[in-house]
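Q: Structure tokens for this one, please.
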Amino acid sequence: MKKEDVKPYLQDIINDLSTLVSYPSVYSDDVPPFGQENINCLNAALKLAEGYGFKTVNLDNYCGYVEMGQGEEIVGILAHLDVVPVSKDTWSTDPFKVTQIGDRLYGRGTSDDKGAGVCALTALRMLKDLEPTFKKRVRLIWGCNEESGSRGVEHYIEKLGYVDCGFTPDGEFPLVFGEKGMVFGRLHGKTQKILDIKGGTVSNAVAARCDVTVDPDNYDFEKLQHFFDEHNISFELQGNKLTVFGAAAHASLPEQGKNAISYALEGLYQAGLDDEFVNLYHQLVALDYNGNNAGVGFEDDYGKLTFNIGLVSKENDEISCTIDIRFPVTMKHEQITEPLAAHGNGHIEIEEGIDPLFFPLDHPMIKALYKAYVDVTGDTEHKPLAIGGGTYAKDMHNIVAFGCDDGKFNYRIHDDDEFVTIDSLLMQTACYYHAVLNLLEI
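A: Here is the predicted structure, written as tokens:
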């Protein structure tokens, strides 16, 4: 099975993806558990699978699954239907309508992670004739709460337990054998001269915009403008309101973005604004995104720690920022939280620490998935890797991330103009087809 063999299914893939993208399935508390749009999207996904002849189950609107095969053991494929928020005024296309331009399909979720879910469903369709020979069940599990937690998968585990092996198509190819650990917290401190501040859209993304209200008489505008020009940062100043524009990126890849919060606060510091919180931010963060200033600039053979400020706001006389840290796979979270809290001198509050995920390269599941990738692509140059992003693999035992990012482009996940290519969809589907077959044999 090669990607060319998937082409007869291409129009169905595009149609099914268009259906799912049309639902703005961003987390909401309007209807439990995750909002009416997530419920609608889950039901639409299950309806698509039913139309192809699969058994489906909706687990209390937390998640749902598509099943084929028979036996006690379960091969799990975990994708998610929820998406991060959008800023419609900065997209080039309608984020909730698939727009094809050349080989690219634009829309929120085309890459993360509705496209991968559709490819997995298509792979199961292509395996339908072999179903009588399966000695295990195969479940495509669609979660509705990956971007703001993992309560959908937690609900599945509570009801049905763990799968025996599998993958989540929500990482990178060839496959991910390690996921960095995570630490979440807050940086907070008093302010005397910032009247208001608001920046970012979600905690697990680099902030693309920050609005700061501050009396212009408290800083040197020429120095501020020089700082922004030097770093190629766009900004606007209307009265005493400063708006700084950065570039969004996933929190695990802060080097791919420009954090508007950091540029706004460091710019004001460089412009001479003498404020307690601005000084604190300069000391502990400034423009650094590897935790060096905060005393946790660690790295191992598989990568560096990343440190992202995602959201900032002010209440009364205190400013608070969210901290999202992804730390090396060979460390434990206590090695991060203890020096971080100590270095923060009471200004850094730790909310949660999660240890990394790590599988040895000779593990049967790792070998099976890597073989699927090589058989489809012929690529033996790229090897299994460790990533900073967190996937369902940290919650569901016995799985790793396999796909969906092929590394050919920045698919702009969590950013404006997210897209996936036709070529990627074809390749993903063929890889998931072989992955299921290989996992059925281990």
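A few notes: The radius of gyration is 23 Å. DSSP finds ten helices and 24 strands in the chain.
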